[in-house]
Every structure is written in structure tokens, then in C-alpha cells.
Specification:
It is an enzyme of class 2 (transferase). Pfam families: HECT. By secondary structure, this protein is of the alpha+beta class. Among the domains are: about 1-40, no CATH class; about 420-455 and about 500-525 and about 535-580 and about 640-680, no CATH class; about 695-935, Hect, E3 ligase catalytic domain fold, CATH 3.90.1750.10; about 940-1055, 2-Layer Sandwich (Hect, E3 ligase catalytic fold), CATH 3.30.2410. It contains 43 helices and 18 strands. The strands form 8 sheets. Strands 13-16-18-17 form a 4-stranded mixed beta sheet. It is elongated.
Length: about 1050
């Protein structure tokens, strides 16, 4: 064995040295270059010595030297023999010239070794015996490089692959009977034992402490392997096959018939001998061939060197898929030792994935008049049973999480061979999905049973504001809960831990394989022809209903993160119900459907006209029009998807916060068209990622901006206005005149703060304070006083968009209608309250009363002042001559609001939006609603609940009312984003006064926050009047109902005018 190790070491040394070329040595320092040349000469001499040792004076084949283990001829004596030259090993390590060793990619037949084989079958079998050695000091890498170098000879390569497959197949055979026979012989009487003869295959292992056993076991005339040796031998064979598959993948698949017929003929060599037959023959006393004794050499006498025997053998190539190496490897997926070992299954899948790259692809459609290219015969005659073996790995969860990527690659490559194979693979995968879904449903229902039992046994959390419960009393002075006796069973705290949750969170859980199988189906399906939802193919309604019910139960537990247990299952639901390919044309049509400012003269350019039902009460599902296009089909399974997303919106956002894949790339990409379901932080992360992708591959440089601190707005306008949008996206480097500060980010933030204040400078007449709340700003209809006002508006639009682009905050708070203009959301008559409260009250009166109650006649026209000129503008053609009636008054309200809020500022609004969209694309900014856009521009405020409570007035309520205590408790439970939305809901803006809530502004000056009692139905949501900072709170009966309605109001009814 030591001679075999010496061969491996020497050959690998030669191969490794050949990687260094003369050009590499020439760039070394002179001392190192000289040392390298000396080492190269020494290597050449040592190579000659090794070649002489293997075949120089003996005349025998290298296999004879490797096989010879006679007692009369010691290895050391052979080393002292004469050194000759071995011409038959020439060229083994010349990798630097033709890329034999350095190329690890695709194999080309041009670098195959022609001529005789370097080693015969017996020598190769002796070399592969090293696979059964599990020594920690064995250099596996060198051994692999030697075998790989030998494989550049085609017959040798085919024989080695077949031998490795034979080794793997033998490792899966049972050896229990042979072990018992062997143990019986050892236990028998000493006289009856057969004399143990010395064998060549005497490799041993330690199966247990203090025990020694042979790796090879005789079973009649058959060699078997010890069970423990079979495991590492199979692993070694898989690793070596994987290395060969990276370069010689084409040799694992069937050969073409033409190539096989070319190799057939009278000169073809007889088939090669089997690997195990060679080992069995070599291990018999008469099966080994010893090399002849070296001839004695007389000094000065020339001894003719015998001609070496040529090493030739042939290895036939398989034609059928079942007979090929690829087919035999697939069959091994059902082998006993492979199935019970997931690491071995992963290695086998990795090997199959490498081999599948060489499979022929489906021929493309021929051009007119051209003949269609036929697929190989083994593709046409494929076996469905072999495909089933691959899919069984998924349905039976035989691999680990790491093997899922390899099996996906394998199935995708197999399905690309032909349309029939793709159809068969999809059908098999659908069967696996159904099987996994049934198991997952059973686990979900088991968890629901445990949750129901936990809810029955464990009492709920006691509320400090509710009346005393069992074991507690309420202090009548401080209203604090006092515990007078401990509970019989302690309340559950921390994470929810149930026995049925463990298999759900395992890496090889049913839902993990269920999700990955669905993803593989989507990879295989052709989106051009199959753009329908996967749920149209088959349904799993019982599974999704069980999942929905279980999520509802998990939301009611004390562990708010317990719903993340079903992250893979929820992802699978979206993957299955979302369309396979989102229609880009629908998104483009939605964007084009939004009216443009310059195109219409009457209606608001960026505010699509509201329909009649918008004047009734805003439905939560219709509020976000910009990102939820009505063009999208909401029938069938898509409606089911929307219903599920609406019901589990909180759960969905929790999952998306933990989701590492970009929203537009994963199965949740359909939510990009329904961003109303997403929370602000999830939208913002998607928005930032999309902005980064827009600039991917573009190098941004610094743009120096020189301004005077006393004239920041004018200087910035002069420096930036004529810059193109791409230059605006560069990083601004701010330099204040007569100051030595270096801008490392601080000066840029200061510049944003200063210019955001200068925007509202009355001297520029660009914006005016809203008369409704006296806090927010709206576009000044009289801006024509500034002759350059349209250029300024475009500049201001770019500045605000640039701040969003740079993720900087501005001190800018606009009216809700302006935010809607930016987003392209319909402007409604309720937005008039903050801009013209008297006009708004008149519209409310008209809507709630009969038209005759006005006492005067209305026509479809309106007096409008634009650029200081008052004119009568028709709402419809010839509108000044058409009277408003009870039947068309809602149409009048809709049109007059559009004209009132946008018609008088049409040109200013156009300029502002043009500048804004130069920096931020409209399709990206439109994912937000008006509340979220204000938070994106101005940031999240720090809402001090105690300060707000101290400056609150109550009407028909008292500070000690149970509903008021529940209200403050619910407000404290909100995070900062929800508190900001609440502030927007009741005041119209998220801005917190600098002096605190004691300085909260209303329509008539300082107006504290008010809570009014609403004695109407408790089924109504809380309503708000932003002009008076007023909240109308119904008398809810429970805390949960109050918190739920308040939460829904601030998220769904951001109009804030009492619609439930």
C-alpha cells in the first residue's frame, strides 16, 4: 500500500508543478526565479525515477508493479534498481500547455488523450481501492487530481465511471447474512476453523471500541462491504463522481447512435472486465501477475531495453437512458443506504444536478421550409418511473434543505429536454404537492386543537383598566389593580411553545418542501403559454381554510410573533393564487389611465374624477386607487387571494418584515399592485430598493453647490435649475460662502432644513397657509405675482423629490389634496374642509338636503379666479345654462370640487409635478397613500401621549369614563407609525407643535384636542373633524372593540370625516 501512496503523491506532484509556466517564473525576483528553476530540474529527475520504477527495466505493465506484493521482493530493493525512462507515462502532467488540469469547466474532446491507456484495468482497480480507506491523513485532493488526469483518456474515463457506479451499487447491498457466517466461523471450535490465508484486500476498520473488522467480506464468490465501510465508500465515490461530472458531464448521459455505430467494427476491443471481478481475481493466489526480475547489468555493457507492452482496452458506451450512468444514478435514489442518509442523498442530488446540465435541450421551432431537428432516441423513450424516483425525494422529504436547490436544478434541466418530459414532471410534482398539502393540513389541525386547549386552560391577560377579576381588586382611589391572591395556574409568558409547532419550524418541515415544490413547478412552467394562476389547475381549499383559521387563533395568543410559524405556508398561498406572470401592460394602462394636467382643462390633472359612489362613504377597499388598479381581475381565485390578504393583513406584514427577498422578486410580488394591504415600513423598504435598482450600474458623482447662507433659495435655484434630472441624482456637496466647513453630510442636512423653510417664504408667494388648520400649506392661487413662479414650482418639486431620493427629512406639511395630486388619487369633496371650510359646509348642506332648500338656483358653472382674473368656467359643456337638480347634484359636487381644488392652480400644479416626477417616478411614489407620503417627506413625529392627554378636552365624557381609559390604553399600545397616523386622522397632519400639544392649532387659532361622545350606533367607526382637532368616539362596550375600531379608522378611513 505504501507504494500505491507513493505513486499518488508523485503523480499529483508532477501535475501540480506543471501549472507554473515560464511566464510566471519570469516575473519572480532573480533569487526566487533561480530557486524555481532548480526545483523544476529536480522535479524532472524525480519524475524519471518514478517512471523507471513503474516500468523502466521490468518490461511489465504498471498494473503488475502495483499488484505485486510478493514476500521475496521487498519494495526497498526495487528502489535500489536501475533507473530508466518510461515513455508510456509521458505527458501526464502537461496541463499548462493544453489546459488538462487547469480547466474545470466544460470538457472538450480536443484535449482528450489519444493512443494507449496510461494504466490498465488492473492498475485502475488497484488505484480505486483507495476509496475504501477512511484515514484522516489521506490526501483526498491529490487522489482526485490523479484520477481526473487519468480520465482525459476516453476509454479510461468510461471504465472509471462504470467502476465508481459499481462501487456505489455494491454499497447498497445487504451484508447481514455474510456477517453472521463470518462470526459463526470465528465462534466455531478451533479445529474446525478454516485456515486464514493472507489476502491482498486486507484493509481493516474499527467498527466499535476494541473491535477490528475487514472492510471486504467474502460471500461465496462475491465481495461485499462491511456496513460501516459502505457508508464512507459511497461518500468517497460520490465526491469523486461529482468532480468528474464538473468536466465530463457528457459521459454520464447516453451516447448518440451514430457515435456508437462509428465505434463498432472488427477492430473494436473486447468489453472491459468488471471492477469487482478484477478485485476478486487479484485477491486469489493465482490471479496476481508479478513483474519479472530485473536483469543484472555488467558495467560498460549496454543492455537493450525491452519494449513496453501497450495498454489497450475498450469500454462500450450506453445508448439507453436506463443503462447510462445518469440513469443508474437516478435509480440509486431508492437505494437503501442512500434513502436513510440525507447527506448522501444531498451529494447524489448535487451529482445529478451537474450531470443534467449536459442533457440535450428541446429543439427550437424550425423556420419555414427548414426540417425539424429531432430529439435523441433516449429522450423520446424516457421512463416516467425514473422521473418519479426524482420527485419521490420531494414527497418523502429524503433530502435536507441544502439539497432542494440541486433537485430544483435537476428537474428544470430534465423538463427542458422535451415537452412530454416537462408535462410528466409537472404532473408528478402536482401529485407531490397534493401529498405534502395533506400532511401539512393534518399538522395545522393538530396545532389548532392544542391552541383551543391552551385557550381553555390558560386565563387571558387581566386588564388594569377593567373591573377586578378573580384574585384581584381595584383600588377605588388610584384605579390600580391589586393582587390579593395568586392564580391557580401562572399565566403564559414569553414565546408560545407547543409540541405541534416543532415539526412546523423544522428545516425539513412539510410546509418547506410544499413551498419549494410549488416554486419548482413555476420554474418549469412556461409563462408565455401558462400565465394563469396555479390555483386554476387544482385547488386546496381545505388547506387554506385551515391555515386561515389557525392564523386567527395565533393572533389571539400572547405571542404576537407566533404567526411567523406559517411563513412558508403563507408564501405558498400567494405563490399559488397569484398569476404566474404579472401583466406589465396592465400596470402601464393603469398609469396611462390617470388623467394628465395639461390634457384636461376642467378636472384636476393628477386627480382622476371621483365616481358618484365616492360621495357616499369611502369603502376601505376603494380608498387606495393608485396602487390597486380596477383593471385587475377580481373574480375567482384572485378574489380569494384578496380576501385572504385583507383578513390577515397584520400577519402578512409581519412575515414581510422578516422576508429577505425583495418584494418584487418573490411570490409576494402581486402585492405591488395592492399596496393598500402593506404597512408603511414595508412599502418604504420596497420603495428604497426600487430606487437603488433604478441607479444600478450608474456611477454617481458629487455635484458642488455654492450658496450664500443669507440667500440659500435664490442661489440654489441659480445653481440647479438648468441641471438635467440625472445631474440632480448626484450627491450634492454643499459649500457655504465665507465658511470653511467640509460637507460630510451635515451641511447637506442643514441645506435641506434651510431651503424647506424658504419654500414657504411669503416673499416668493408660492404657498399659503391653509385656512382650515392654519398649519399646513397649499399652492397659492395668486402666485402670478411672482413672474418666475412656474420655474420656482418646478424647482420646488425637484427639491422635495430630491429629499425623498436622498432619504432626508423636510419641514414641509401640505394639505391632503396636494398629496393626492402627487399620488394621482381622486380628490374628494371632504378634502375641501381644510382649504375652504365655508364652501365645504355648503356642499355638505347640499348633499344632505333637498336642492330646493338652498333657496336659489345652481348651474353647472363656477366663478374662478386665476392669475388675478375672475371668470365663469363651465363644469360641463354649456354648463352655465344647465340647472342643478336633485338627480344630478352629486355630479355637480364632484365636478365643482375638482375645479375648486385644482382648476385655479392648474399651471402651478403642472410645473410642481413635472419637477417632482423628474426625480421620483410616478409608478414608485404612487404606492403610498397621502398619509404615508407626508411621513415619507417629514418623518415620523414623536407623539407624547402624556402631553396629548394633559391637553385634551372632553364633551359628554369625563377623564374617568371607562371608554376614555380604554382609549388612552389603546393609543399607548400603538407604535410610532400608528400614533402618527392617529395624529393625521384627528388633526390633518402629523406635525407636532414645537411648544407641545398645548399649542395645537385649529381653524380659529389655538384649539386643543377634543374627544366628543358619539351616542349613535357602536357599529360605527370613530370619526374626526380636522379643522377642530375633534374625535367623535362611540360608546363601545369592550376595550377590544374600541381598539379594533380605532385602529381600523386611522388606517382605512384616513379621510377622517366620520364615514364608517
Amino acid at each position: 500500500m505504501w507504494l500505491l501512496s507513493l505513486l499518488v503523491f508523485r503523480v499529483s506532484w508532477v501535475v501540480g508543478f506543471s501549472d507554473m509556466e515560464d511566464s510566471q517564473i519570469s516575473v519572480l525576483p532573480p533569487e526566487l526565479a533561480a530557486e524555481a528553476q532548480n526545483l523544476r530540474r529536480d522535479w524532472q529527475l524525480m519524475q524519471e525515477h518514478v517512471m523507471n520504477l513503474l516500468g523502466g527495466a521490468s518490461g511489465g505493465s504498471p498494473g503488475a508493479v502495483l499488484r505485486y506484493r510478493g514476500r521475496d521482493s521487498a519494495p526497498r530493493s526495487r528502489l535500489r534498481g536501475g533507473w530508466g525512462q518510461a515513455s508510456h507515462l509521458h505527458g501526464l502532467g502537461e496541463s499548462s500547455s493544453d489546459g488538462v488540469v487547469t480547466v474545470l469547466g466544460q470538457h472538450s474532446s480536443t484535449i482528450d488523450r489519444q493512443g494507449n491507456a496510461l494504466l490498465d484495468q488492473e492498475a485502475l482497480a488497484s488505484l480505486l481501492v483507495m476509496l475504501f480507506v477512511d484515514a484522516p491523513k489521506f490526501n483526498v485532493m491529490r487522489f482526485h487530481r490523479v484520477v481526473r488526469s487519468l480520465c482525459f483518456h476516453p476509454p479510461t474515463r468510461r471504465w472509471i465511471i462504470r467502476a465508481l457506479l459499481a462501487i456505489m451499487e455494491r454499497t447498497g447491498e445487504k451484508v447481514a447474512l455474510a456477517l453472521r457466517r463470518q462470526e459463526g466461523r470465528k465462534r466455531g471450535p478451533k479445529s474446525s476453523r478454516q485456515p486464514e490465508r493472507p489476502t491482498w484486500l486486507n484493509i481493516r476498520l474499527d467498527p466499535a471500541l476494541g473491535s477490528r473488522a475487514n472492510v471486504f467480506i467474502y460471500s461465496g464468490k462475491k465481495l461485499l462491504l462491511h456496513p460501516q465501510a459502505a457508508s464512507f465508500a459511497c461518500r468517497h465515490a460520490l465526491e469523486l463522481l461529482t468532480l468528474l461530472a464538473k468536466t465530463f458531464a457528457a459521459n454520464f448521459i447516453p451516447a448518440s447512435q451514430e457515435k456508437t455505430q462509428d465505434e463498432a467494427g472488427p477492430s473494436r476491443q473486447p468489453p472491459a472486465e468488471d471492477f469487482w471481478a478484477i478485485l476478486l481475481r487479484l485477491d486469489t493466489p493465482g490471479g496476481r501477475v508479478a513483474p519479472p526480475e530485473p536483469q543484472k547489468r555488467t558495467p560498460g555493457q549496454h543492455v537493450p531495453r525491452p519494449k513496453p507492452t501497450p495498454v489497450t482496452f475498450s469500454e462500450p458506451e450506453a445508448v439507453a437512458l436506463e443503462e447510462s450512468a445518469f440513469g443508474r444514478l437516478i435509480v440509486m435514489l431508492r437505494a437503501r443506504n442512500i434513502r436513510k442518509s440525507k447527506p448522501l442523498t444531498d451529494k447524489l442530488l448535487r451529482l445529478l444536478a451537474y450531470v443534467s446540465i449536459a442533457l440535450p435541450k428541446e429543439p427550437p421551432e424550425p423556420e419555414e421550409g427548414a426540417a425539424r431537428q429531432e430529439s435523441p432516441a433516449f429522450i423520446k423513450n424516457y421512463s416516467v418511473e425514473m422521473l418519479k424516483m426524482i420527485v419521490e425525494v420531494l414527497s418523502e422529504k429524503s433530502c435536507t434543505e441544502d439539497g432542494l436547490d440541486d433537485i430544483a436544478t435537476l428537474l428544470v434541466n430534465v423538463s427542458e429536454c422535451s415537452a412530454a418530459m416537462r408535462e410528466s414532471v409537472i404532473n408528478l410534482l402536482l401529485g407531490a404537492v397534493t401529498e405534502l398539502a395533506q400532511r401539512l393540513e393534518e399538522q395545522i389541525r393538530k396545532l389548532m386543537e392544542e391552541l383551543a386547549a391552551t385557550a381553555t386552560d390558560t386565563p387571558g391577560d387581566p386588564s388594569p383598566d377593567e373591573p377586578s377579576r378573580r384574585g384581584t381588586l381595584q383600588d377605588r382611589f388610584t384605579r390600580e389593580v391589586v393582587v390579593v391572591s395568586s392564580e391557580g395556574r401562572p399565566r403564559a409568558t414569553g414565546d408560545l411553545q407547543l409540541p405541534s409547532m416543532a415539526p412546523l419550524v423544522a428545516k425539513t418541515s412539510n410546509q418547506t418542501f410544499f413551498l419549494r415544490t410549488l416554486k419548482i413547478i413555476f420554474q418549469i412552467r412556461k409563462p408565455d403559454a401558462e400565465d394563469t394562476s396555479l390555483s386554476d389547475t387544482f385547488t386546496l381549499d381545505t388547506l387554506w381554510q385551515a391555515l386561515s383559521d389557525c392564523l386567527e387563533l395565533l393572533k389571539q395568543t400572547h405571542d404576537h410573533h407566533a404567526v411567523l410559524v406559517f411563513q412558508s405556508a403563507v408564501e405558498a398561498f400567494f405563490l399559488m393564487h397569484a398569476p404566474a406572470k404579472r401583466a406589465e401592460g396592465a400596470a402601464a394602462a393603469t398609469s396611462e389611465a390617470r388623467l394628465d394636467v395639461a390634457a384636461l382643462d376642467v378636472v384636476s390633472p393628477m386627480s382622476p374624477i371621483a365616481h358618484e359612489n365616492d360621495l357616499q362613504r369611502p369603502s376601505p377597499k376603494e380608498r387606495q386607487v393608485d396602487a390597486s388598479p380596477s383593471h385587475v381581475s377580481t373574480t375567482g381565485h384572485h378574489q380569494k387571494f384578496l380576501k385572504f390578504a385583507e383578513k390577515h393583513r397584520t400577519v402578512l406584514n409581519q412575515i414581510l418584515r422578516q422576508y429577505t427577498t425583495h418584494l418584487a422578486d418573490g411570490p409576494f410580488a402581486v402585492l405591488v399592485d395592492h399596496t393598500r394591504i402593506l404597512d408603511f415600513d414595508v412599502k418604504r423598504r420596497y420603495f428604497r430598493t426600487e430606487l437603488e435598482r433604478c441607479d444600478e450600474g450608474i456611477r454617481r458623482e458629487e455635484l458642488a453647490i455654492h450658496v450664500n447662507r443669507m440667500n440659500v433659495f435664490e442661489d440654489s435655484f441659480r445653481e440647479l435649475y438648468r441641471r438635467n434630472p440625472e445631474e440632480w441624482k448626484n450627491r450634492f456637496y454643499i459649500a457655504f460662502e465665507d465658511e470653511e466647513g467640509q460637507d460630510a453630510g451635515g451641511l447637506l442636512r442643514e441645506w435641506y432644513v434651510i431651503i424647506s423653510r424658504e419654500i414657504f417664504n411669503p416673499n416668493y408667494a408660492l404657498f399659503t397657509v391653509s385656512p382650515g388648520d392654519r398649519v399646513t400649506y397649499m399652492i397659492n392661487p395668486s402666485s402670478h405675482a411672482n413672474s418666475n413662479h412656474l420655474c420656482y414650482y418646478k424647482f420646488v418639486g425637484r427639491v422635495i423629490a430630491k429629499a425623498i431620493y436622498d432619504n432626508k427629512l423636510l419641514e414641509c406639511y401640505f394639505t391632503r389634496s396636494l398629496y393626492k395630486h402627487i399620488l394621482g388619487i381622486r380628490v374628494k369633496y371632504t378634502d375641501m374642509e381644510s382649504e375652504d371650510y365655508d364652501f365645504y359646509k355648503g356642499l355638505v348642506f347640499l348633499k344632505e338636503n333637498h336642492i330646493t332648500a338652498l333657496g336659489y338656483e345652481l348651474t353647472f358653472s363656477l366663478e374662478l379666479q386665476e392669475f388675478g382674473v375672475t371668470e365663469v368656467r363651465d363644469l360641463i359643456p354649456n354648463g352655465r345654462n344647465i340647472t342643478v337638480t336633485e338627480e344630478n347634484k352629486l355630479e355637480y359636487i364632484r365636478l365643482v370640487c375638482q375645479l375648486k381644488m385644482s382648476g385655479s392652480i392648474k399651471q402651478q400644479l403642472n410645473a410642481f409635478l413635472d419637477g417632482f416626477y423628474d426625480i421620483i417616478p410616478k409608478r414608485l411614489i404612487s404606492i403610498f397613500n397621502e398619509q404615508e407620503l407626508e411621513l415619507l417627506i417629514s418623518g415620523l413625529p414623536n407623539v407624547d401621549i402624556e402631553d396629548l392627554r394633559a391637553n385634551t378636552e372632553y364633551h359628554k365624557y369625563s377623564p374617568n369614563s371607562i371608554q376614555i381609559q380604554w382609549f388612552w390604553r389603546a393609543l399607548r399600545s400603538f407604535d410610532q407609525a400608528d400614533r402618527a397616523k392617529f395624529l393625521q386622522f384627528v388633526t390633518g397632519t402629523s406635525k407636532v407643535p414645537l411648544q407641545g400639544f398645548a399649542a395645537l392649532e385649529g381653524m380659529n387659532g389655538i384649539q386643543k384636542f377634543q374627544i366628543h361622545r358619539d351616542d349613535r350606533s357602536t357599529d360605527r367607526l370613530p370619526s374626526a373633524h380636522t379643522c377642530f382637532n375633534q374625535l367623535d368616539l362611540p360608546v363601545y362596550k369592550t376595550y377590544d372593540k374600541l381598539r379594533e375600531c380605532l385602529y381600523k379608522a386611522i388606517h382605512e378611513c384616513s379621510e377622517g370625516f366620520g364615514f364608517a
